[in-house]
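To close the section, here is one more complete example, presented without commentary so you can practise reading it yourself. The ligand is glutamine.
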Amino acid sequence: MELNKKSISELRKLYIENSVKPTEVVQSCLHAISNKDKEIGAFLDVMSEDALRRAAELEKESPEEMPLYGIPVAVKDNICTMGYRTTCASRILEGYKPPYNATVVDRLLKAGAIIIGKTNMDEFAMGSSTENSAYQITKNPWNVDFAPGGSSGGSAAAVAAYMVPVALGSDTGGSIRQPASLCGVVGLKGTYGRVSRYGLVAFASSLDQIGPITRTVEDSAIVMSVISGQDPRDATSIPDAAGDLVTGLNMGIEGLKIAVPENFEEWDIDGVLKKILKDTIEELKGAGAIVEPARLPDMDASIACYYVLANAEASSNLARYDGVRYGFRAKSESLDEMYEMTRGEGFGDEVKRRVLLGTYVLSAGYYDAYYNKAQQVRAMICSNFETLFSRYDLIMLPTVPGPSFKLGERIGNPIEMYLSDIFTTPANIAGIPAISLPAGLTDKGLPLGMQLLAGYEGETKLLRGAAALEKIYKFNED
Ligand code: GLN
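Output:
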């Protein structure tokens, strides 16, 4: 039995009938990591000994009351793990060990999960290929010449390569859903505020959300139920509980109203993906859903708005890395020089580009033209979505315009890289939940993802729709 290939729900059954022990599951995942990760490069840190110790401790407890009992979890390296390096894949946080856990980590541990390692990412979650890591490149398990997507590329690759059943990612403009799409796994970003951001190293605070990357929709629902909920340490966390996300999964799609982009036939997207979208519409209709073309918020405006706001917020959030409080400090003669050298040597090119852009759009002369304008566009996109969700339960569109791309192919062209977020940023701008799930493969065998969006706090419907799509695609059954 290859325990590393089991889903959370399968492992749970095995634990409850007492036919496996957490130590065996952890060993199986560690074995998969030591076999494959030299090639894939998904992990920045693997906590083998501590994971095995915790597994042994859990064996004294019973699985019933703990929804993630004995489940190995990988955590993106921008989520604080007490006593373990949390570097955001940046030199500037080299060696930084937070003195506290992120709320999500505490929630996972309380539910019986075992943290097994920290995953590679684009530095400070800025990027779409995980090539911006200061430490290593992560490869796509489907074809190692290709990018795993980003910024949570390490998390998506770890799950796709069967090294763990679940990994946490963070999604500011698509960083959970885009790598999930490129690696053929399920990625969920909840409503803004659904999951506490306490202990998530901030990129763009009004957009950031933590969420699970898994191989099945059910596992996504299980993990979301554990990590979501109001947190007194995050004033933006929402008071209403997510409710029972798992029970409704098998309700089917009958009666749900789904909007699809009215002009997608003209879109410049992968041909196989377009065909999948067309076929899915027919399948959904056949299953009793009402599917209608609708005018979606302007995607070009959304991506432009995203890159103004995200960078503005990043330039302010990243001001704290000055060589005084955390991690790396450059050798220097004076205080000013210390700041300059630390930031100059500690940040990579993409982070510097964002800080410069962000500072520019916030500067006195350009604030109105860029930052304020982007806030207005954000309000417009939010109100467009509100109108749409007064008529429809869900919106369906691809996660990314195409499959993965070759490592190195886009890294020299930031604009092209930014455009892979065209379909994912709207959900962050509007703070609404969205999920990506694997929908098929290109002729070259690379995964393609389909995305569903729901209205504010609409996770139950979102997951119900995703479960129905999962049944149509049967991606994991091939
Ligand atoms: N790729 C986007 C960016 O580079 C999204 C990043 C994210 O969601 N963290 O900003």
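Once you have examined the tokens, check your reading against these statements. Residues 1-478 form a domain with the Amidase signature (AS) enzymes fold (CATH 3.90.1300.10). Residues 367-391 form the longest helix (25 residues).
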